[in-house]
Amino acid sequence: MARPFVLLFLLSLISIFPSKISPESPADLVADLLALQQRSPSGVIRLDDHAIRRFLLGPPTPRPYSLLIFFDATQLHDKPELRLQQLRSEFALVASSFIKNNQGQDSETQLFFCDLEFKESQTSFGLFGVNALPHIRVVLPHVRKLADSDSMDQVDFSRLAEGISDFVEAKAKLSVGPIERPPPISKTQMMILVLILLVSAPFVVKRVLEGDTLLHEPKMWLAGAVFVYFFSVSGTMHNIIRNMPMFIADRSDPSKLIFFYQGSGMQLGVEGFAVGFLYTIVGVLLALVTHVLIYARNANLQRAGMFVAMLVSIWAVRKVIYLDNWKTGYAIHSYWPSPRR
Q1: Strands 135-139 and 150-151, how do they pair?
Q2: Does the structural domain 19-171 have CATH classification 3.30.43.10?
Q3: Where are the beta strands (DSSP E) in the chain?
Q4: Residues whose CB is less than 8 angstroms from the CB of residue 317 and which lie 6 or more positions away in sequence, other chains included
């Protein structure tokens, strides 16, 4: 008699708590993701191994949402070459911009920004096949095997938030919208700067009228001209506009750094400075020959100076040509014009 009673008791429990064993509906998962997103100040949802199983491995495909995941490791934050903290901040900036620009639209529930920490989610790192950082992946609705999800190219990390936004639009086919960065100077700091300028204005005007400023020093103009020349030939403006890093970490070995990137689609900061330095050497030598060496009274000194300037200039130009050939694959060939027939 005891066994039928036990079976009846178990059946009654199952009938009372059916939701405990039934799979969650897609609407419930989306609602939970929205709730987690609202709890996060930046809109980035912190995932772990359990959340990966629940939101990605458990539901059948296609899922009604995509997840953009930033892979992080707290123990690597002290390595400046990886820039994990900066990239995490840029990732949060893209997340907040997407949430703001897509609020009230259908796309609001089609993409969620998440992050995974290595110590908390080592199993998930293995499922994704992540073995190097920085790393960002987007898991689209039809992806069942996590390792088959799309990863962001290393080159795009140099563009920070803009690169992440383009990656989202290219893979998830969703528009992030304009990225709103916080102002570099707060209103209080701006008021303090204006106050300092107003107080110092009479003293600055007095120094200018007396001709006792750095702007009246010829050596400063000379140094400024060399700096502007170096600034222009080193591609510094390109690096500033596109937020190019000075160097990047090697994906195959994060302990190694890459200073020269082979490929015409990207130029690192150190690479530009190296080329700019070579160009500046040639420019400064030309200026010395045409403006300083001509005043030397000794003809042998003039010849020696010209010879050294030519040798160094040829060496610098050869280095630039070699780097261009290595980077782009294009070689420079001699050309001798022939008469037209």
Answers
A1: antiparallel
A2: no
A3: 45-47, 66-72, 111-117, 135-139, 150-151, 248-249, 257-258
A4: 278, 282
User: Which residues are 114's β-sheet partners?
Assistant: 45, 69
Partner residues linked to 151 by β-bridges: 137
Q: Residue 117 has what pLDDT?
A: 93
- Domain residue spans in the chain? 19-171, 217-328
Q: Residue 335 pLDDT > 90, yes or no?
A: no
Q: What pLDDT, in 10s, does the model give residues 197-225?
A: 888 888 878 777 777 777 778 888 888 88
SS3 content of the chain, % helix, strand, coil (to 5): 60, 10, 35
**Is-contact 176 98, C-beta < 8 A?**
yes
Cα 33 versus chain centre, distance: 27
Q: Is residue 6 over pLDDT 60? A: no
Per-residue pLDDT at 5 = 52
Q: CA-to-CA distance for 250 and 253, rounded, in angstroms?
A: 5
The CA–CA distances, whole Å, from 12 to 8, 15, 22, 213 equal 6, 5, 16, 92
d(CA 114, CA 160): 17
- Strands 135-139 and 248-249, sheet pairing: unpaired
Beta-carbon contacts of 143 under 8 Å, excluding residues fewer than 6 positions away, are 61, 149
CA atoms within 13 A on the CB side of 124: 27
Residue 116 pLDDT greater than 80, yes or no? yes
- When pLDDT is cut at 50, 70 and 90, the band that residue 181 belongs to is confident
Name the β-bridge partners of 257: 249
Token pair 């190296």 is found at 274
User: What is residue 68's three-state secondary structure?
Assistant: strand
C-beta of residue 126 within 8 angstroms of C-beta of residue 147: no
Give residue-wise pLDDT tens across range 269-288. Answer: 888 888 899 999 999 999 89
